[in-house]
UniProtKB/TrEMBL annotation:
SMART domains: AAA (SM00382)
Keywords for this protein: ATP-binding, Nucleotide-binding, Transport
InterPro entries registered for this protein in UniProt: AAA+_ATPase, ABC_transporter-like_ATP-bd, ABC_transporter-like_CS, Oligopep_ABC_C, P-loop_NTPase
Alphabetized GO MF terms: ATP binding
Upper lineage: Bacteria, Bacillati, Actinomycetota, Actinomycetes, Glycomycetales
The name this protein goes by in its record: ABC transporter ATP-binding protein
Matching Pfam families: ABC_tran, oligo_HPY
Native species: Glycomyces mayteni
Domain ABC transporter per the UniProt entry, residue ranges: 3-250
């Protein structure tokens, strides 16, 4: 198993109290697996990705653990995590295209980045150029400033840099959302290629775009209000979802699976609960057409089969 996350709890400290952005998240990722992480805005997708890389100043690791290739990740210990970043776990962050330092040429920036990881630019240059070619970029981009590149080119540069040290786990956070449909497709296909070529072992692709992740993910996990409510092979999530929330997400996207969607999710009636004080029991029940008395209790985790798990009282109805 490449990654095992057990009962992970990560909160944000605010003046009003703790926002429980991850509230008992458990899942595992096999070697070579691409998992898509889907769910409405604010459900905790980005927080989950960041928790496996770097907690920001307001995030607090409250409980649970993540084990990567048999080694527990020192979540919450920024210095210890620093030794793992890029080499073992890497992220293509949200808005990464604009995160490239505008005052540095790409080549110089890469050299600095590698030096900080104790790696030699000269030793890795041939591999870097090879990978740039793979994503359709010439060596010349190393002499460019980020401003001289298009959005799609910058995104491809970031993808190459974040995987250059062959991390075991890559987190790709909304990597396609700022791109046009053609570039979205190219970026999604590149992620799969990087996995197939062994540049990364496994991948978590965070997105609100189910139709996109359906094209590339082996497995889809659906999050709701800080928890994972369903996990299954991508095909199963689309054709036979069991959680009423997943059904609503799929229903909101009639084109899922047919096209790379450029449509945003149509909204599901109602709002997710606030994570400062989430309700007990099933967190979806206030919006759920199937809600019944038992849903006031914590839902059971039901194994539909060995690759399909759902947290719902009504999973088998
Ligand atoms: N710095 C912060 N301080 C307090 N609460 C935060 C902070 N960042 C995020 N949150 C809260 O944590 C929860 C999870 O947010 P997160 O960004 O992980 O969700 P998301 O699913 O990635 O959303 P999006 O798709 O909009 O990026 C939300 O309730 C959000 O309001």
């Amino acid at each position: 198993m490449a990654l095992e996350v057990e009962d992970l709890k990560v909160h944000y400290r605010t003046t009003k109290g703790d926002v429980r952005a991850l509230d008992g998240v458990s899942f595992s990722l096999a070697d070579g697996e691409i998992v898509g992480l889907a769910g409405e805005s604010g459900c905790g997708k980005t927080t989950l990705g960041k928790s496996l890389i770097r907690l920001d100043g307001r995030m607090r690791h409250v409980g649970g653990r993540a084990v990567l290739d048999g080694d527990e990740l020192p979540i919450g210990d920024d210095r210890a995590m620093n030794a793992r970043r890029w080499k073992e776990v890497s992220i293509i962050p949200q808005y990464s295209m604009s995160a490239l330092n505008p005052t540095r040429r790409i080549g110089k920036m890469t050299a600095e980045l590698l030096r900080a990881r104790g790696k030699s630019y000269r030793a890795l240059k041939d591999e870097l150029v090879h990978r740039l070619h793979l994503v359709g970029l010439s060596e010349d981009v190393l002499g460019n400033y980020p401003i001289e590149l298009s959005g799609g080119m910058k995104q491809r540069v970031v993808m190459v840099l974040s995987t250059l040290l062959d991390p075991s786990l890559l987190i790709a956070d909304e990597v396609t959302s700022a791109l046009d449909v053609t570039n979205q497709k190219a970026v999604a296909e590149t992620l799969v290629r990087f996995r197939d070529m062994g540049f990364v072992k496994s991948m978590i692709v965070v997105t609100h775009d189910l139709s996109l992740v359906y094209q590339i993910a082996d497995t889809i996990m659906v999050m709701y209000a800080g928890q994972i409510v369903e996990k299954a092979p991508a095909e199963t999530i689309v054709t036979s979802p069991r959680h009423p929330y997943t059904k609503a997400l799929i229903g909101a996207l009639p084109e899922v699976g047919l096209e790379y969607g450029d449509e945003k999710l149509k909204s599901i009636p109602g709002k997710p609960p606030h994570l400062l004080d989430p309700p007990t029991g099933c967190r979806f029940r206030a919006r759920c057409p199937l809600a019944a008395d038992e849903c006031a209790q914590e839902p059971p985790k039901v194994a539909i089969d060995d690759r399909h798990e759902v947290a719902c009282w009504k999973a088998e109805d």
